[in-house]
Each structure stands twice: as structure tokens, then as C-alpha cells.
Amino acid sequence: MIDACLATVLWQETSRLVGALDICLDGQDNGGECQIYLDINLNINRKEGDRWGEAWCLSKLGFFFEKRGENRQAIAYYKQSLPIWREIEHKDEESNILCNIAATCNNQGKYEQALQYYKQSLTIKREFCDQKRKDYKAWDDYAPLLQYLEQDLTITREGGGERIILNNIASTYRAEGNIAKALE
């Protein structure tokens, strides 16, 4: 059925449907079927040249394997998605993937590698946020800037963005036994 839809102009609808099935099954912790649907969706996006969809599927597969403790496979999928996020210049996702790779390295006890990825992620996250602020300021309309800054503050307060990355760096230093560096 999926192949028949792909042979028509319905490939985007098929991709959305397969993606929805993945989300539904993931919520039910039905891992085996999730992987099948993610693989199908990945193939659809590759066939149609949808780079964003391909990167998203690779990232989801990385997260899928990370949740199951299959760190090598998780990192392999994350590393496949990373150059695509860079190619399509999606800095926020690039930062998130670097952070995911760092967390997976940290889980494996590879603290130096984790720190390198966390630092890359932090640099990109800061550049991304700074650019957003500059873009809004350039409009000379401060309402969108204030709205963005309030959202940014809320996300940071709720455990997102830069604060998480800084905390992960400190945790990695602590796990490595470098308490003084963790407290910086």
C-alpha cells in the first residue's frame, strides 16, 4: 500500500501518516513497530529528496536507539543527521543533535568526547539565540523581540537551551572527577 502511494503524488501524505503512526506507537512504547515506521519514513524522504524529513527521521532513530541503551547505533544515526541539519542550516537542530551525541557519549563514560560535543552545542545554541535577537532588533519592532525573549526565558527556566547544556557539561566534569571545573 505504501509503495502504491509513493508511486503517485501522495508521497508527502504517506510520509505524514507513517510519521503519525510512529508517534502513536512510540507513546505506547511499542519500539519494534516504531523502528519499522521510522525506517519506512526515512526511505520515503530519501526517495523524494526531502532533506529535512530525512534528518528528522535519522534524529528520531538516534533517539529511539538511545532510549533503548543502544548507544553505538544511536550515535551512528545522530552523526548521519548532523551534516544534513548543517546543510539545510537548521542551527537549533544541529545544536540539539550535538547535545544528544554528547549525552550518549556521557552514558558510555566517554567524558572527553561528551565535553567536546557539549561545547560545540553550546556555541551553536548561543550563536543561534544571538542571531534571533539581532534579527528581531533589525526590524525596529520590539514587540516580536520581547515575545522571543520571554519565550527564551520560559524555555530556559523550564529546563531548555543553554542551561541544560551548561548543566550537562558540569555533570560530565563531575563524573570525570574534576569537581573544581564542574563548579565553574
Specify Rg, calculated over alpha carbons.
19 Å
Main sheet? Answer: none
* Average pLDDT level: 74
Written as H for each helix and E for each strand, in order along the chain, the element string is: HHHHHHHHHH
Number of strands: 0
Unreliable segments of 5+ consecutive residues: none
Helical content class: over 70%
Return the domain count: 2
Q: Which structural class best describes the helix and strand composition? A: mainly alpha
What's the N-to-C terminus distance?
Answer: 57 Å
Which shape, going by the Cα principal axes?
flat
Query: Strand portion, in percent?
Result: under 5%
**Mind telling me the CATH class of the largest domain?**
Mainly Alpha
Number of helices: 10
Briefly note the CATH topology name of the largest domain.
Serine Threonine Protein Phosphatase 5, Tetratricopeptide repeat
Q: Architecture of the largest domain, according to CATH?
A: Alpha Horseshoe
Features:
mainly alpha; 2 domains; 0% strand; 184 residues; 10 helices; Serine Threonine Protein Phosphatase 5, Tetratricopeptide repeat
Question: How would you explain this protein's 3D organization?
Answer:
This protein has 184 residues and is mainly alpha-helical. The protein folds into 2 domains: 1-70; 90-184, Alpha Horseshoe (Serine Threonine Protein Phosphatase 5, Tetratricopeptide repeat), CATH 1.25.40. It is built from 10 helices and no strands. The longest helix is centred in the C-terminal third of the chain and has 28 residues, at 111-138.
